[in-house]
Write a structure and sequence with these properties.
By secondary structure, this protein is mostly helical. It contains 13 helices and no strands. The longest helix is centred in the first third of the chain and has 28 residues. It is globular and about 60 Å long.
Amino acid sequence: MFNGLMYALYAFLVGGILLGFHRKIMARIQCRPGPPIIQYLIHTFKFYFKELTFPISAGNPLYVFVALMDVMVWMSALSIAVVFESSLLILIGLYILQKIVEHGCGLSSGSPYGKVGGVRSVFSAAAEVPLFAAAGIVYTVTHSLIIGDIINYQAVNGPLIFQLPICAFAVFVLVLSKAPFSPFAIVKGKDIISGYLTEHYGPLEAIIMIGDAIAWFVLLWLFMALFLGPLIVASPVLTLLGMFVLTIIISFICALTPLLAPNHSVMLQITIASLTLIDLAYRIIH
């Protein structure tokens, strides 16, 4: 248990620095100085020591519970994926649970911005079919949904990113959609302030920020594990390097693309999912 908590701390620190790095790169691309790279960590600790407040419209205890659930979901995902390299299906289940947490987080605050963000979170779940299609394609090729087995398969047969480029692209778009200021980031769009997080403040927001940092670490690691295999994840140094490279690529995309409207975001991701499903059907038939 102690080792698990230490790994969670490591994932939070790495994820927080990467998110700060993400904002710094975006700022430089847009000819702004930008915040320090450790700004995300600074904000997290700052909110942790702020006073815990409850809006009059908040629905307790759900208002508190969803923040705790957010960090527990991603700590569980960290254990399942990175520590134990276990089932990809369990990880998908946790990802779906995260959507429920976001929805509850928005509704529990009673804020109209939070409600819109929570509704958009459920709305955006319909656009994340690529995750299921990608799991199906990976299974047809590797005959396993255990992450450790998928990594071992690539050790023998080479990285899946060359064998399954459409599948890799679909999962990359999914990771991109979770990046701050992403063109697909409709649940925290600028038109609704901070979306489902608008009313959460103090230690509760710090807890959610810890969960988001761990989530970023897990999603980047998962992409590399599924499509780059032991080439990257076998070495901690190469893992960190790969995460930084992916963050740089995503930062360029976020800095140079506008925020899509919710319907456009969903339709574009559904189109990518359709291509992935067609690829899956073709592989099953042949």
